[in-house]
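Minutes, project huddle
Topic: does the predicted pose make sense with adenosine-5'-triphosphate bound?
PN asked that the exact inputs be recorded in the minutes so nobody has to dig through chat later. Recorded below.
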Amino acid sequence: MLTPHDTPETAPGTPHSAGVPSDGDPLARERAHLAASRASLRAMREDVESLDLTDVTANWVNAAVLNARIEERIDSLADLAHTPLFFGRLDYVRQVAADEASGTAEGPYRAERFYIGRRHVHDPAGDPMVIDWRAPVSQPFYQASRTNPLDVALRRRFGCTGGDITAYEDEDLTAGGDGGERTSRLLQQEIERPRVGPMRDIVATIQPEQDEIVRAGLSGTVCVQGGPGTGKTAVGLHRVAYLLYAHRERLARTGTLVIGPNDSFLRYIEQVLPALGELTVRQATVETLVAHVPVTATDPAPTAVVKGDARMAEVLRRALRSHVGRPTEPLVVVRGSRRWRVPADEITVMIEELLARDIRYGAAREALPQRIAHAVLLRMEQAGEAPDDRVQNTVARDRAVKALVKEVWPPVDPAKLVVRLLGDADFLRAHSADLLTEEERTALLWPKPYRGVKSARWSPADAVLIDEARDLVERTPSLGHVVLDEAQDLSPMQYRAVGRRCSTGSATVLGDLAQGTTAWATPAWPEALRHLGKPEAHVEELTAGFRVPREVIAYASRLLPAIAPGLREVRSVRESPGSLRLVRTEPGALLPGLVEACHDALTHEGSTGLLVPDPLVEATREALVGAGLAPLAPGDETRADARLTLVPASLAKGLEYDYVVLGEPGGVVEAEPTRGAGLRRLYVALTRAVSGLTVVHEGELPRELGR
Ligand SMILES: Nc1ncnc2c1ncn2[C@@H]1O[C@H](COP(=O)(O)OP(=O)(O)OP(=O)(O)O)[C@@H](O)[C@H]1O
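Predicted holo structure (tokens), as shared on screen:
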């Protein structure tokens, strides 16, 4: 029951132009509300700007803090010229007085009405003119349907051009019925708009199944399995914005973090949260989180698999605890003319107790001197002295006590521990005898041991081992909420590294098992969630695809039986017939074929991505430059005059382009160490296109794609 209305007249000066309400023209009334809302927002901003703090702050520190808050508030009240302040309206079934004057028992009434937008705006009297999309009152905008109208009589969606409202579309939810819901035309337009520039927010068109994930409570961890283009990244980012709204104070204290697969991806998504008014969310890759040493080496896949295996956590734990010794001599503490003895056995019991409590190595190391001092204190009391707490602290700092603790519970440098494990075969075997096979140990050991932390050539997986060792020594601080995107590519040890950064908070885990391209990719979500330390998390599935046209997703899905037999094909919401083209070139003519396909793609509006196997990137770049088509690099912002990006297949994950030219699919598969990983990489590459995909190949297509 959608009733679209385009702008009847938009020329300035006509009876229906913005700001000139006319009773018969609902669009003009909506524009008038927009103009009034803008004026109110300006007034809200001016109110804050005119605050005079001279009398209220006692000192300059307070004044500086308050001023910073005020600046923040002023920024958050900025009006964005290119987006209207609201994108939707809800008319509830319940009635309210039409206006103050006539709001008598008999007076005219109208449906209670809310405008939904990116931020809250109120009029000078404090009455809401626009409600934040995250407020509970806004939720029916995303959830109400004809089968379950949630007291909503009418849902209106606005179309806009620049900062102006140019169309609206109504849904009468009182009509009842058994569904029959159709995709909104404004949603279709939003999905089909050309993708120039970085990723944009989707607040105006969040779908019900997405909304449920966005608004899930802060206390639980949610895991979202969804095929390409189902909106996982979008949902994850909107969820952070929602959580910051609903739990601002708590999250401001504890912090939030979005983790993505690489820097180009982070650059692609970095503007979504600021556009939603959220400027404080940190973004990082797992590599930057664990960057305790410079990474200059790469491991062969079998080695990286063992280093990323969760058993390594136990190997590290044992190796660390092996540093704890037992005293062989009694401890003697001299105070004044008296000597106090604590027998070795008694100290051994204290050490065993601390080990059994399983507290951090560093914390236990700090607790031991206090325990020893307590034992000395007891002896003093038995001898008739009356020592107080200060005496206990002094004894704990006594030279003899310190020396003993250093010997039996020595400080351990986490990176040195890893140097020893990877360089000393006997040490490694001693702590992994029943955990790893001989073959796995051989894979772990450096061919030639390094002498120290500085001289070692560290790999990404080594940095994760060091991170684990650091956490065994000292607890890693936890954030309030972490969003983990493209999670399927993480090793168990990487999940643990992320998990300790949200150990007392929660996480949103986003991924697609069919897009796992690492040799250690996640086989199943429950296992991954266990490594993350959140075994109780719910796994939700997103099935509607908003990016890839039907024909293209059907072609890519031919790979599913080989790469993820349990997963369903994405249900594309977009028809776009004629969106897939396969072109086989003459032998030796791949590069000219790619250039020609790019020229074709660029005749369309929007961005073009040329995806090629990594080994072909340089030759392809030369061919493009030679043809006058100098390309951008992945993550660079596309502009109207630079719309072609050359993307190595290994960096395509998470990105999208209006038109994609994919070169040599067989080469994409072969560039990976295993066929499984290669086919999944190809699946990623085949699912980046919004409007059209041209596959150009010189060699055979992988047999899994069929004929
Ligand atoms: N409800 C929606 N309304 C409009 N556009 C949407 C909606 N949901 C997703 N999209 C758009 O669909 C595209 C794909 O979304 P997104 O990148 O979040 O998908 P994804 O599941 O993370 O994909 P991938 O698995 O390939 O990384 C984006 O352009 C996004 O803005």
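Observations noted during the meeting:
- The chain has four domains: 2-182, 210-293+476-545, 331-408, 550-705.
- Residues 331-408 form one domain.
No decisions taken; revisit at the next huddle.
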